[in-house]
User: What shape does this take?
Amino acid sequence: MDLDIGDKAILRGIDLAVDHGRTLALVGESGSGKTMCCMAALGLIPGGGRLTAGRIEGPGGVWMRADEGDTVPIPRGKVVTMVFQEPMTSLNPTMRCGAQVAEVILRHEKSEASKAREKVLGLFEEVQMPDPQRAWSAYPHELSGGQKQRVLIAMALANDPDILLADEPTTALDSTLRAELLDLIASIQRARGLALVLVTHDMDVVERAADEVAVLLKGRVVEHGSADRILHAPAHPYTRGLLACRVPKKGRMTPLPVLSDFMGDEAGSATFQHQEIQSAPADRPMLLEVNAACKTYPGGGVPALDNVGLSLPEGGSLGIVGGSGCGKTTLARAILGLHRLDSGSIRIAGKSVEQNSPDQIRHIRSQVGLVFQDPRAALNPTRKVGAAIREVLTRWGHTPDQASTEAVKLMEAVGLEADALHRKPDAFSGGQRQRIVIARALAADPKLLICDEAVAALDVSVQAQVLNLLVELRRKRGLALLFISHDLGVVRYLCDRTLVLDRGQVVEEGESDQLWAHPTHEVTRRLQAAGGGSIA
Assistant: This one.
């Protein structure tokens, strides 16, 4: 199959098939054509798009073709259906979840509303929704991320399809939820005999769930075979690069390999002095201290933070891990002065900041930078990058000329050219946008960088670039890192120490390698068993 949109070639020579009860994983970086393959199978090609060669065939006959031959209507919903990546944008925020699933049933078959409700509740039980009755009447914002994804899976299964397309269904979820949903999808697939096409950039998901793998690069399949063969004996340099870019299972050698080490004319020519990431010396003064922090939101019975304490020395790195709702983000917001604690204390660079007075907020912002999870949402799409960075610099006392000079230095520090300052965010790749967000966070010359899921949404190859950058910035600038992530492998690799949160409480803390090698608490063992990144 070949697919063009306008005069641009999008897919070329795609020749793939998946049988009942089997899982085909489509792997590649963003823009490689993975999602477009699924959208073409559903007949959801963007305006101006068309097949220029080949055909798409499924149960019932040929669904689409480039020539003038006969086709049958694509049986969306009844035979082929899709679970999309982001449940919050896939669900109608103004409709109750049960009604949304029932609507799918009523649209495809003649059924009474009471029968549809009964079927929806059965589907909610099949997808292991904790409280099907509550989910029926809940709006999407009232459910957790994992529960919303279960609603989408129930919706996809509502009309007993034969083929399920799943587009990054676990990317934004923590490791335990990811493992649960992958196991759930696998059990449903076995029970129903579904053919499953799984789109992912996470090679650990491939290892856990796939029977066959197709590796896509610039709209072409560069390698196709069994998951075992692809993972353990990859033939194409691109596949070898995707696998090599992952953080190692043991040790903390830096820099990590990146795709350019395997692709192009310079592949294999770069020479690196690999070295172990060094932990901060034990005699460093404390930069961040949190003592007995407590926070309960209005109307909430369970504390978001319950007697939480931590310390981070200058130049050190601390990972915060735990399941969804454990208190990670609440802790970060309290440190940033965005939430006021009910009790407890926070000291940054020797100054108490828990009262969030104007003077304390200014101190926080002079000492702490924040790197968000989604770089696209963190940058104003209408403003040039340079303006966003110079705004921070002028706010902290630089003249316009000084701000322009310093902005160039910041871009060079994160590995970008100075001319990037004159472009808007949409002109950059995801990894480049994250570098820009980091440059902006460094503009106030902070001593501490808080990274809230800063690499969660990035391709593994781009993730390696950003991790290399963070390690280098820490070495050169003496930055301390507070790294919040659901990817346990990344935390083990990047952070000297790890703190595990559960239901607002610290349940375990220790040196990262030691903690993951010999976890003592049930929550830590559960996180380890669920996998995530390089955790074996």
The chain is about 35% helix and 20% strand. Residues 212 and 229 are 9 Å apart (CA to CA).
